[in-house]
Amino acid sequence: MTEPTTVQNDDVVVFLAGGNGRASAPLVPVPQSDAAVNVADLAVTRGDGVFESIGVVGGRLIELPRHLARLAHSAELLELPPPDLAAFEAAAHTALAAHAPAPELLVKLFHSRGVETPAHTIDGPTGWVQVLEGADHTAARRDGVRVVLLDRGYRSDIAQTAPWLLQGAKTLSYALNKAALREAARRDADDVVFVSTDGVLLEGPTANVVVRHGDVFRTPRTDLGILAGTTQAAFFDTVRAQGLTAEEAVLTPDDLTTADAAWLCSSGRLLAPIRSLDGAPLPVDAHFTAHVLTQAFGLPT
Ligand code: PLP
Fold this sequence. Notes:
Bound molecules: pyridoxal-5'-phosphate
């Protein structure tokens, strides 16, 4: 086995073999600034692909099997060629080994439909893995985040009535999610929870929501057209291991305003308590949050 190349002072990219979308050599870690995707790749021109963001704490990929399963599920929903999960896993480890160590990192897996050729055939898929340093989430995890409710613009049965909208797939088209976060900033908030037109609580643009009432933890059901969260699932594993109740449910904004505690859950940030909703304070359970961050994700106390 060859020694991993360490790429200094830059994030790292590893392209998978196969497909013509890459302009960099496959399986070799390269600095992100040298990694290039073909401009005709459908990921670039149409956002036509799927991805995963995986948290890395102390060198360990958090919930890797759940992320790989979701990548495959998203690809299926988009009718993409199935991703080579073993190759993605190997590329993730190669890229991680080449990155300068840090207490926390993010590993992103990209699976694009591929390059549209001049003859309008598709040469693909294109796959690559990126390792990068995430933002510092210390304050969000400790103090919580300010959330606003925003209209999602469709009903909660959208996944059944209009499956072509690809609800539940983690696609590369995140422009809407980013627009919602800008709207939150305009409203002097940090994040968003979407509500369907029929009044059902959904998810955030990059996170799932969990509410606690007494010893019962609940999260919106995934058949409501939302992403099945890996962080929320790990959170629920920990809750259940303590003998507490954790369940999927149909929730409304009232369930959030009356909660004893509530969180946004996502791979980079892990858990962020919701400390206000539309400007009204919500209770933050700092002690329990810190406990789960350690138990479920291995964060140092
Ligand atoms: N919902 C959406 C729309 C997301 O984009 C994400 C993650 O980015 C999540 C939920 C949370 O998923 P996970 O905890 O697996 O990161």
